[in-house]
Structures are given as structure tokens and as C-alpha cells.
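Quick check before the chapter quiz. The format below is the same one you will see on the exam, so make sure you can read both the input and the output lines.
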Amino acid sequence: MAANGTVHAAGCVLWRHSPHPGAGVEICLVHRPKYDDWSHPKGKLKRGEEARAGARREVLEETGTRCALGPELPTVRYPVEGRPKEVRYWAAEATGGGFVPNGEVDRVVWLDPHAARGRLTQERDRELVSALLAALRPADAEPAR
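Here is the expected output.
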């Protein structure tokens, strides 16, 4: 936590190439039973932890997936219990691993960008899907509808 009381966190918009030819990318969302919400993997930074390392750690802890960080996406700021929270995000390509339910996350889903936007609980998380698609090469973007 910063001297001004800001909670610092990091996360990723985790993506992979769809296993269906020509279908573009899929985005991983996590379900947190404590909040009964769907979001991108993220979490608070440990004392002295660099944001990029924290983002990779959170993805692995919450999804069981290793990832390669890509471009940084917009930072999201919002209040939590009366304190400011700042979450730095990166585009991150899944590189392997597998999900095992844990105390924080009981389910993950891989969805096309349109379906991911519809499943996400918070508008701020939907905006990150658009930021991811803008950051990816045109060949990786969602297919034309």
C-alpha cells in the first residue's frame, strides 16, 4: 500500500488462440465465489513486488496458467472499502498449465471476446477486452461478425 493509502495490484487479460480455426482469440475469466463475480485474474502486490512479477504470479495462482506478458494495458482505478485501488494490467498470452479450483477462484472459462464482455461483471473489465484487442495484431483480433 502506498503512503496515500492506495492499494496497488496487478493482473492480466489472459488470452490464447482459439482452438477453432479462424475464430480469433479466447479470453480467460475467473469466477470468485467470495464476490460471486467474473473478472480478469488480478490481485494485490506483495511488499516490494514489481508489478509485472505480481501480474504473472496472480495469473498462475488464480488460473494455474503460465503466461508471457505483452503490452501494458490501461491502469484501472476504483475505490474499495473507502480506499483507492490501482490495478495495472498487461495483455498476457497463455503458455501452459491447467486450472485447479482454489480458495479464491472456483471456476475459469475461456470465451471469445464478445462472450467475455457479456460475462464480465464490471464495466471497467469489459473496457480491458477492447484494450487487449487493440493491442493485438490484426491477425489475432476477434473475427468479423
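If your answer matched, good. Residues 23 and 144 are 9 Å apart (CA to CA).
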